[in-house]
Amino acid sequence: MSRSLVLFAAVGAAALVVAGVLIAVSLSGGTSKPQSTNAALSGVGDALSIFGGIPQHGIVLGNPNAPVTVVEFADLQCPYCMHFTTDQLPAFVQQDVRTGKAKLEFRGLAFVGPDSLRGLRAANAAAQQNKLWTFIDILYSNQGTENTGWLSDAMVRRAAAAVPGLNVAKLVAALDSGPVNTLVQAAQRLATTAGVNSTPTLFVNGTQVSSATAAALEQAVAAAS
Q: Are 94 and 105 in contact (CB under 8 A)?
């Protein structure tokens, strides 16, 4: 099951126009209610276990020379993306990515609201330090209801601080950097070109996967190998 992207192309075009406004909201915290900074983060140990020892290069997880490329389009506020990441992705990572059969490429989208853009920019900033996959896994494990303020500046900082080797100050400084802007816009263009209308949407060597499940992914990777 996936989260529909209503008027995806229109939203994508509008996102480029209002990006400056959304960036300002994301950096200031807007009017959203921040999640308590006292609550312990969930899923940190699992994230470190799942991705530990697997190379990360920017938005790519796994051996950059792996013969199969899996591209995931996702929104960090999307509950279906969260379920895919926490329920389906770990098995695929262990069986196909860790073994070098495939590599994963994250293409983040921001259509749910300002919090989505905040999370997307933070994820792409983490990519500058080669820590994206561990970082977003922690965010997904602590996902709240859409547009309630759960993906606050405080949450971004706490999740980043939980990733060994991820410099929080450097991540925050990179949120509106050129490389982050480039990744945001490139993902939007790719999604529009590919006709992506739901998240999570997966492609294996350019062919869309039938469903966001580990079994479907493994079958697609086997066929592409």
A: no
